[in-house]
Request: fold
Amino acid sequence: MRAIEITGKGGGPEALRLTERELVAVIAPDEVILRVVAAGVTRDDILQRRGLYDAPEGVTDIPGLEVSGVVEAVGAAATRFKVGDRVCALLPGGGYAEYAIAHESLCHEIPGSMDMQLAACLPKSMFTAWSSIFMRGKLRAGETLLVHGGTSGVGVMAIQMAHQCGASVYVTTGDSEKKRLCIRLGARMAIDRSMEDYAMVLRRVVPDGINVVLDMSGGGVLARDMEIMAPDGRHVSIAHMSGKTAQIDIPTLMRKRLILTGATLRGRPMAEQAAIAADLDLKIWPMIANGRVTPVLDKVFPLEYAAEAHRHIESGKHRGKVVLSVSNP
Reply:
């Protein structure tokens, strides 16, 4: 089968190379084989290419953590899907290929009206946003959420999920066009961090403070976030694009009783990932099926142009998700 491999370690986008790999036909009883139609491109893929985020032990070295596709085979104990079903799936790896193996509990049936390329945008962003905001951050209706990076794949899903669940969402972005997209998705306010001091703006607009912060920036914003958080606020770190370390004011942490936490998705025990999937099935998937929550597709590249897809994301110009087209639906 055609697949993308990473040549060397710690390289640029040019390290991605189209190759031929043998299809693994033997699967576990609770797994399914998918003919991949489209694969979402994530920052985790980029980190893996750079040598900063290796695949877990026993997982294929082919990058790609989310796909849409058609079920080609099912394991002996798999009961949720049948051959021919259209699904999107969260993977431990292997998405940049014509075939992929997924655990059946991490697959979701694609609504009949949804395009397969759009469906490939869902799994990683959906799992990450839900588990971070609602399971770690304990966001409730009537509370306020701040999202750093509102037009990232995770940010797009976070805005819509929180808005649909009754929270007021504030976001930071990088330009005016991204601001407009965030407002369209349901954010109450979007702040261009290159033009405004987001902490000063939010201190004025939300005087009672922010209840939950979803942070993809990292050390560069943590101390400022703490200044504008409400008492008993929860700060959830899921990336560190502006720095791995931060200096914080411990008296503020104590006085406000703040909770600083973080999360990753890849490599978590299957039982934990399955619990997230079950929550999504119950609470978010109906919103996706009726169009109340939908991903934003920025650009599609053929599989063999995976390097260009990585370059596009690393440029910071994308708004929403970037997808690789692998085969016909």
About this structure: The chain is about 30% helix and 25% strand.
